Amino acid sequence: MQANMGLIDRLVRVVIGLVLVAYALKFGFSDTGWNWVGWIGIVPILTALVGYCPAYSILGVNTCSVAERSRGA
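The structure corresponding to this sequence follows.
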Protein backbone atom coordinates (compact mmCIF):
# COMPACT_ATOMS: atom_id res chain seq x y z
CA MET A 1 0.00 0.00 0.00
CA GLN A 2 1.83 3.06 -1.28
CA ALA A 3 0.96 6.58 -0.10
CA ASN A 4 -1.25 8.42 -2.58
CA MET A 5 -2.06 11.57 -0.60
CA GLY A 6 0.03 14.72 -0.37
CA LEU A 7 0.58 16.85 2.71
CA ILE A 8 -2.02 19.51 1.87
CA ASP A 9 -4.61 16.82 1.06
CA ARG A 10 -3.92 15.15 4.41
CA LEU A 11 -4.19 18.41 6.36
CA VAL A 12 -7.50 19.30 4.70
CA ARG A 13 -8.87 15.85 5.53
CA VAL A 14 -7.89 16.17 9.18
CA VAL A 15 -9.57 19.57 9.47
CA ILE A 16 -12.76 18.39 7.76
CA GLY A 17 -12.79 15.22 9.85
CA LEU A 18 -12.38 17.15 13.10
CA VAL A 19 -15.21 19.54 12.19
CA LEU A 20 -17.49 16.60 11.42
CA VAL A 21 -16.65 14.84 14.68
CA ALA A 22 -17.22 18.10 16.58
CA TYR A 23 -20.64 18.24 14.91
CA ALA A 24 -21.36 14.68 16.08
CA LEU A 25 -20.35 15.59 19.64
CA LYS A 26 -22.40 18.82 19.44
CA PHE A 27 -19.26 20.78 20.30
CA GLY A 28 -20.18 24.27 19.13
CA PHE A 29 -23.15 22.98 17.14
CA SER A 30 -26.81 22.72 18.08
CA ASP A 31 -28.65 19.42 18.36
CA THR A 32 -30.37 18.83 15.02
CA GLY A 33 -31.13 15.14 15.29
CA TRP A 34 -28.71 14.55 12.43
CA ASN A 35 -25.56 14.98 14.51
CA TRP A 36 -24.78 11.27 14.23
CA VAL A 37 -23.84 11.90 10.59
CA GLY A 38 -20.74 13.70 11.88
CA TRP A 39 -19.18 10.37 12.83
CA ILE A 40 -18.38 9.98 9.14
CA GLY A 41 -15.54 12.38 9.96
CA ILE A 42 -13.53 9.45 11.31
CA VAL A 43 -12.97 8.21 7.75
CA PRO A 44 -11.06 11.26 6.46
CA ILE A 45 -9.05 11.41 9.70
CA LEU A 46 -7.98 7.77 9.34
CA THR A 47 -7.13 8.10 5.65
CA ALA A 48 -5.07 11.21 6.44
CA LEU A 49 -3.16 9.42 9.20
CA VAL A 50 -2.40 6.45 6.96
CA GLY A 51 -1.72 8.58 3.87
CA TYR A 52 -3.66 6.23 1.63
CA CYS A 53 -7.13 6.68 0.14
CA PRO A 54 -8.74 3.60 -1.45
CA ALA A 55 -11.05 5.80 -3.54
CA TYR A 56 -8.00 7.57 -5.01
CA SER A 57 -6.59 4.19 -6.06
CA ILE A 58 -9.81 3.26 -7.83
CA LEU A 59 -9.99 6.63 -9.59
CA GLY A 60 -6.27 6.74 -10.39
CA VAL A 61 -5.67 9.94 -8.40
CA ASN A 62 -2.37 10.63 -6.64
CA THR A 63 -1.73 13.93 -4.82
CA CYS A 64 1.53 12.74 -3.30
CA SER A 65 4.65 14.41 -4.66
CA VAL A 66 7.63 12.38 -5.85
CA ALA A 67 9.65 13.44 -2.80
CA GLU A 68 6.88 12.33 -0.42
CA ARG A 69 6.56 8.99 -2.19
CA SER A 70 10.28 8.30 -1.95
CA ARG A 71 10.40 8.81 1.82
CA GLY A 72 7.23 6.79 2.40
CA ALA A 73 4.99 9.54 3.80
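The first helix runs from residue 7 to 24.
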